[in-house]
Amino acid sequence: MREQYDVVIVGGAVMGACTAYWLASNPDFDGTVLVVERDPSYATASTALSASGIRVQFSNRANVEIGLFGHDFIRDFPDLMEVEGDRPSLGYHPGGYLFIANTDDQVRILRENHAVQRAAGAEVELWDADKLKWAFPHLNTEDVLLASYGLSGEGWFDNTGIMAGARRKARALGVDFVADEVVAIAREGNRVTGVTLKSGASVGAGTIVNAAGPRGGRVARMAGLDLPVEPRKRTLFVFDAAGTPEGTARVNDGRLPLMIDPTGVWCRPEGRFFIAGGVPENDLPPEYDDFDPDHPEWEEQIWPALAERSPNFEALKLVRFWAGHYDYNTFDQNGIVGRHPEVTNFIFQNGFSGHGLQQGPAVGRAVMELIAYGGYRSIDLSDMRFERIAEGRPFLEQAIV
């Protein structure tokens, strides 16, 4: 580890690893890069504990384009991340996403979102209840007013694989990784100048990138900056359905999609099982080290909604469960990307509110562009800039899962 780096990235999960990869692979950038990760096991990283989905069904164009690029990145992953002949695959499952609406307001949102998605080039269809019942016969569609189904560009993949592959490639390209924790950030006027690590080491930095996930707000405060990002707990449940409906679909070779019920409860196939989750009724910030699953959610929220939506989900056996943290943006539940307007060598990539894994490849590339070129050259993420918070202008995302 050097005493000074051009770029210090705080956080080595998917955001930090992808940013490091894009910087190191860009021939126009010849700077030094250090990634600091507090937990090299990644046991409690949001990346490792996520449900590993990628989709294009969002309500604003930037997120749709991020999803489209992320899908291509996953497709090309073996080529991009090849190291000494090893070509890692992410085991991508093209299952699609299915949003179901049973209120007029939900219908309005689906139609508005669909217009944005189609304009951005996403292949998404709107179905009435009859088409939905034909495609997925196991579903109860009596209350359905409209459904939105992704024909391509959506599915799930190996969450730790994308992080590990980007990290290994970045290291092969010269990026330094250190298992340590940033405990202080030095600042002189309107510039950050370096970090102090828990080990006692001090490292100078030309630019600091905040890729600390749910701890992003805490890292920003070290630099004297306020960032509306805090953890939110999400419990995931894996269950077995004796009368599994997988294989009964009349689309996508019989594969079922990730279904988002109007209640907010979602589920998708997970091998021979299914995985499900939802938004807790009392969605309060947990302690940073609180990863205890919220067991009552299964009996009180998840199972009842699934049983109501499909008779195949009435008799279920819970197999396993775990909890992870979202890096939750309390302002508008959308990513915060870009330089601080005053402390311009401090860059945010925070607050993705559950979408960070799938958005890491595109956001990492965008942050690389800010550093290497001073502006975006691919997807314009200007609407995600930090300034919107001080200006009180939310950049809302209506398709939150």
CATH homologous superfamily (4th level) name of the largest domain: FAD/NAD(P)-binding domain
What is the number of helical segments per DSSP (H or I, 4+ residues)? Answer: 11
Order of helices and strands: EHEHEHHEHEHEEHEEEEHEEEEHEEEHH
The backbone outline, from C-alpha atoms, is globular
How large is the share of residues in beta strands? 25-35%
Tell me what the CATH architecture of the largest domain is: 3-Layer(bba) Sandwich
Mean pLDDT across residues: 97
At CATH level 3, the topology of the largest domain is FAD/NAD(P)-binding domain
Pfam families: DAO (PF01266)
Domain FAD dependent oxidoreductase: 6-370
Protein name: FAD-binding oxidoreductase
GO cellular component, one term: cytoplasm
Give an overview of the whole structure.
This protein folds into 2 domains: 4-85 and 158-230 and 331-391, FAD/NAD(P)-binding domain; 97-155 and 231-324, D-Amino Acid Oxidase, Chain A, domain 2 (2-Layer Sandwich), CATH 3.30.9. With 401 residues, it is an alpha/beta fold. The longest helix is centred in the last third of the chain and has 18 residues, at 356-373. The strands form 3 sheets. Strands 1, 2, 8, 9, 10, 11, 17 and 18 form an 8-stranded mixed β-sheet that branches. The protein has 11 helices and 18 strands. The chain crosses the membrane at residues 7-24. Residues 6-370 form the FAD dependent oxidoreductase domain. One of its GO terms (cellular component) is cytoplasm. This is FAD-binding oxidoreductase. One of its GO terms (biological process) is mitochondrial respiratory chain complex I assembly.
